[in-house]
Amino acid sequence: MSQQFLNKYEKEKRVIELHLAGKTIRELASELRMSFTSISKIIKAYERKAKREESNQSTQPKKPPISTQAFKLFKDGKKLTDVAIDLQLPARKALKLWSQFLRLERMYECYEFYQLFQSHIPQLLAISTFIKMNKVNK
Question: 74 near 108, Cβ under 8 Å?
Fold first, then answer.
């Protein structure tokens, strides 16, 4: 196949192949009948792309988002304050994540109940115990 009939992409591919094989720009120019400038542009673009791909692959695996980390800790039974400390979160952010976790677990109504009746919980438990002990019908 004659080099005259190569399209742009085939020429670029051939330049890269020969460059990786160790040919100089001068040798490439005479073999492919291209200018030094065109060959240099192709090689530089290839090297930039290779460097980008290398840096993307060499980076450490990304940490999951803070919300995911917090949800995992909540699921493992960590307290709100422990999660805030472990993830170095401000109190508002930790509380927001905790309420989101409760919603996901369908336990948010329990939390709302606790917020409304937290001062009355001992009395409610006493009433519940009395009902159970005396076998009071509903």
Answer: no
What b/e readout covers 78-107, taking b as 16+ CB neighbours within 10 angstroms? bebeebbeebebeeeebeebbeebbeeeee
In our burial notation (b when 16+ CB lie closer than 10 A, e otherwise), range 20-59 reads eeebebeebbeebebeeebbeebbeebeeeeeeeeeeeee
pLDDT tens string 95-134: 899 888 888 888 877 777 877 888 888 888 888 898 888 8
On the 0-12 / 13-18 / 19+ scale of CB atoms within 10 A, 60 is exposed
- pTM equals 0.42
- Looking up tokens 């085939």, which residue turns up? 10
Distance in angstroms (rounded) separating the CA atoms of residues 10 and 6: 6
Rounded CA separation 67/113 (Å): 24
H or E stretch at 125: helix 121-133
Tokens describing residue 9:
């992409």
Average model confidence (pLDDT) across the chain:
85
